[in-house]
Amino acid sequence: MMTQTTMLQYEAPWPVHSLDWCKSSAPGQQLRPRSAFRFGVGSFTENYQNQIAVVGLQDERVLVEDDFTDYPDFVTLCEAYHGYPATSLQWQPASAQNHAWSQKSTATELLATTGDALRVWEYSGDGSTNSSSYVGRPPISSGHSLTMKTALSGQSKVQNQSAGAPLTNFSWNEKAPNLIVTASIDTTCTVWNIDTSTAMTQLIAHDREVYDVAWLPGSTDIFVSVGADGSLRAFDLRSLEHSTILYETPAPKSVPPPTANPSASARPPTSPLLRIAFNPSDSNYMSTFHMDGSDVQILDMRSPGQPVIELRGHHAPINALGWGSAERPLLATAGDDCQVLLWDLANYTQGAASPRSAGSRLNSPRPDAKKRVVTEPVMAYTAPSQITNLAWSPQIQSMTMNSGYSTASGEWLAIASGKTIKALKV
C-alpha cells in the first residue's frame, strides 16, 4: 500500500533567508497541480553575491512514498543574481491572475523582493505538458526564467538620506495587486504602484526603523506596521494626518538614565516588534512578536492596547510566523529552539464579535477581553537546526497519479533551517 509523502526536502547551495510558496498553479498549467509545488527562495551570504531562485517539484511521483527515491524532491528551476540578500521575497497574490495587467503573457508570474530596492521579477515557466521534462537532469534549458522587470528605490523623506534606505519587508495588496507597501529602516513606509513604477505616497511611520508592514485583508487603504520603537500602528491612506497606535510594547522595568541628548528618543527604549500578520479568515486579529522574544502576541483591532491572546510554547527567540489559508487557519510559529509550532486559535477568537467589513473604522468597540494565555500548540515539529523562516502553501488540490494512487488535498508548510527547506504536509 502506497502512502502519501508527508515531508519533502530541498537542499539549497547557500543558507536560505527569504522564502515564499507560490500562490497558485503555474500560468497555463492549471491542469498540472504539481506546478503548485513551487517556492521562491533567497540566499543570505554576507557579500554582494546573493541569489534568488525558483524551486519546483522534480516529479509528482515523489508525493507518493514508493521507490521513487533516486532523485531529489525539488530542483532549482531558475535563479537570478540579487546582490544584497533579499530581506523578503513574495509571489504575486492569487488574485493577480484575474487582473488585466498580468495578462500580457499567460505564461508569466510576478514575484517581488526587497533589499536595497523593491524589485519586481517576471517568472516564466516552460508551459510544456511533458511531465518528465526535467526528471533526473538539471533543467538548464527547460524554459524557466527569472528576469528583473523593475527596481524601485525612492528618494527618502528623511534628512541625510538622498538615495532610498534599505527596505526590510513589504506587503502585496490582494485586492489591488498593482499596490505594494514597503517598510524601511529610514522610519518610512512607501506605497508603490508597480504598474506605473511610481511611489504613490511615502510617510514617516515610526520613530525608528520599520521592520514589517501588512495590508488589512480586503482593504486598499489601511495597512499596519511594526518597528524598532516597539509600536504597532495602523494607517489609512484616506486620512494620512494621523495614525492609530494599536499596541506598544511595555517599557522596560529598568529604564536607563536619560542621556545627554534627550532628542535621541522621546520614549524609553523598548523591545522592537519584528513581524505582523493578519488572520486571513478574521482580519480583526493580528499576530506579532518581540525581537528576542519567545511569546507571540495576538491583538484584536477592536480592543487595541493589550494582546487578547499570548502564545507561550517556544523556548528561544521566534524568527517567523504565518497563517494558513484554510477556513480554520492555523498559525505557525518557528524559532531558534528548532521548533515549528502550529496553533489553532479558532476556539479563542470565534464568536467574540462578528467579523468587521474592511471598510468600517478601526476602532469599533468590542467587549473588553481578558488576555488568555495559550501554552498548547496543536502540532509541533522539531528541525535539526534553528528555523529562520516559514511559508504556507495555498490549498493544493488532490492529484491522481498514473499509478491510480491519489494524494489528499490540503496545505503544506515550508520551513527553512540553514541550507535546508523542508515541506511538511499539514
From TrEMBL:
Residues 249-270 are annotated as: Disordered. It comes from Psilocybe cyanescens. It holds the Pfam family WD40. Keywords: Repeat, WD repeat. WD repeats lie at residues 203-245, 311-345. This is WD40 repeat-like protein.
